[in-house]
Structures are given as structure tokens and as C-alpha cells.
Amino acid sequence: MFKKKPILRMITFLGVGMLLMLGVGLLFNGDKPVFKSSITPIDKIQTDKKVVAIACNVYEGEDLLPSMLETLKKHDTKISFFIGGVWGKKNIEMIKQMKDSGHDIQNHGYYHKKPTQLSLEDNIKEINLTHDLLKSELGIETTIFEPPYGDFDEYTQKIVNQANHKLVTFNIDTIDWRDDASTDIILKRVNKKLNPGGIILMHPKEITEKSLDSIISYIKSQGYEIITVNEILNITE
């Protein structure tokens, strides 16, 4: 009986060790955590001021953007354009027009890949390539990163911190990217979630270009001011 105790202790020790190893294996896959934990990227700002920001993620739509810029100018409205690097490299003059019109230019990664599916090195490269492109071509230094597809986890937050950017998403999705999107649907979605400090997501899509005048007019009719994402992050009561 007494001789068996050391064996039992050894079995227990090995069992605990295996469980610990299994736990580590579940939590980490190489240098990347597998499980998402509770994190809160910036999708809105707590404020009583009736302001909202518009974030337009750009990875296409160079034929639609001139019209959108004209509509924004008509309403004397400045927004944030989050630039995808591959698109940006081919459309520097368009980005220059955005900048010269007073709009905020920020970072949407380079190859439009989901951050949670990339390595540490590739994630940092996504942000830095776009940052360096805009800096070298236009003297723009991005400070905010909006991940493609709104895809993120705790790992993404660490990457963005290392790249000296803020991780921002949105709390109002116009769903202009969907095939069934319409001006009516977009306005209903904006109406349903319009609140102080909100961030509205859109893209340079045909329906957005057609609806932008109505979107801006509706938001302003509700007593809201439209500002850039950079401005809304710096609101102080």
C-alpha cells in the first residue's frame, strides 16, 4: 500500500502537467492566442454632445469618390477615409484630393486581410506599409487603424498598440456593402442607432454615392454635427 503512494503521486503530477500543457496549447497557437477575450476597441465615444463621426473604408470606388467628395463639400462636412494600401498606391491623386478637401486620412491595412488570420509580423506589416506609403507620398501619418471586415481580437489590440495606432471599429453599419442595400434601409439603420459619439461605417459603393446627400441631411436634421473619427476621439466634455 505504502509503495503505491509514490506511483500515485507521480501519476497525479504527470496528469496535472499534461492538463497544463493542454491549456497552454489551447490558449496559444504559436505567438497568437486562439481564444477571443473580452476587449473593447473604440466603436463610439461616451459624450453628451450631439456629434457623430463617419468612417469610410476605401479599397475600391475611385469612380464614385469624386461625386462623394462633392456631396461632402456641398454640406461642408469632413469625414475620415480609411485607406487600403494596395488601392492607395494606385490612387495617390485621389487621396490627395481628400486631404486637400480637409478630410481625415487613416489606416485600413495594406492587403485587406483579416488581422485574426495573420501572424504578428504580417499584422504589423499591414499597418506599417500603408502608414509609410501615405507618409512618403503625401506627408500623412496615420494614427488610427480600422481593421478590414471589423475583424479583431486581443491579439489585434496588441499589434495596433505596437504600431502606435488606435484600434477603432464602428457602432452603426450602413450595410452599403450588401446586395440588398438601399437608401431606405441605410437611413433606417442610421435612425435606429443614431446616438451621441457614434461612429458610422460606409464605403464608396454606388448606393452610398446615391444616398450620401440624404444620409447627411437626415443626420443634421436630428441636430447632429458630423465630424471626423480623429476629432471624435479627442472630444473632451
| Strands, count | 10
Overall structural class, as computed from helix and strand content, comes to alpha/beta
- CATH topology tier name of the largest domain: TIM Barrel
Q: Write down the secondary-structure element order.
A: HEEEHEHHEHEHEEHEHEH
The tally of domains stands at 2
End-to-end separation in angstroms reads 73 Å
* CATH class category label of the largest domain: Alpha Beta
Keywords: Membrane, Transmembrane, Transmembrane helix
InterPro entries: Glyco_hydro/deAcase_b/a-brl, NODB_dom, Polysacc_deacetylase_ArnD
Pfam family, one: Polysacc_deac_1
GO molecular function: hydrolase activity, acting on carbon-nitrogen (but not peptide) bonds
Describe the structure in your own words.
GO terms for molecular function: hydrolase activity, acting on carbon-nitrogen (but not peptide) bonds. Keywords: Membrane, Transmembrane, Transmembrane helix. It comes from Clostridium cylindrosporum DSM 605. This is Polysaccharide deacetylase. This protein is an alpha/beta fold and 237 residues long. The chain folds into two domains: 27 residues; 183 residues, TIM Barrel. Helices cover 46% and strands 14% of the residues. Strands 3, 4, 5, 8, 9 and 10 form a six-stranded parallel beta sheet that branches. It has a two-stranded antiparallel ribbon with strand order 1-2. Strands 6-7 form a two-stranded parallel ribbon. Helix 7 links the parallel strand 8 and strand 9. The radius of gyration is 23 Å and the shape is globular. The N and C termini lie far apart (73 Å).
Please outline the helices and strands.
Layout: H1 4-27, E1 28-29, E2 32-33, E3 51-58, H2 65-74, E4 80-83, H3 85-90, H4 92-100, E5 104-107, H5 120-138, E6 144-145, H6 154-162, E7 166-167, E8 172-173, H7 183-193, E9 198-202, H8 206-221, E10 225-227, H9 229-233
Parallel strand pairs: 3-4, 3-9, 3-10, 4-5, 6-7, 8-9
Antiparallel strand pairs: 1-2
Helix pairs in contact: 2-8, 5-6, 7-8
